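Consider the following input, taken from an annotated entry for dITP/XTP pyrophosphatase (Frigoriglobus tundricola).
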Amino acid sequence: MTRLVLGSRNKKKLKEMLALLGDLPLDLTDLTPYPDAPEVEETAETFVGNATLKATQLAPVLGAWVIGEDSGLCVPALGGAPGVYSARYSGTHGDDAANNEKLLREMSALTGDQRAAYYVSTAVLADPTGRVVAEVEGRCHGSIVTEYRGSGGFGYDPLFLVPEYGQTFGELPPEVKQQMSHRARAFEQLRPVIVRELLGGG
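Applying the prediction step yields:
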């Protein structure tokens, strides 16, 4: 069975990928089976740049198909911040609570349409030689609420209000988020490429 590696150690991202692609006859995993896999420095200033770095650097080292994925939250009123720095907005990588608190502080004076925001997910698929085969982007638009709502999801989810539902990603059931999140929309575009390239489908 062909292995497809998510170039991340984020278990929550892997869980979402399994929900989105788990029905395909593939061996889906993250970097857990590869303790010696290099840490890819996310030095690019764009989501697609960082996703490409992960895919192209990891694939030849692992000798496997790799999806490099970079995602984040963009607030136009903050000049697009947190953007590519979403995971380390507060200065500490992966500290969701500190990142959320900084976002609330930065937006404390903003009202109405100024609180508009969108999530971006860019995914890049590289073959075992490191050649880029596909590059996709998914977006999900909403707004930032003024206080935490819900305990589901991760990252900025308890603050990200989805207008169609009147609830945050932190409040919505995972199966709803998986249908319409930025990552779901990116992987939906990637899916036919994976079927064609890895499974020989039409």
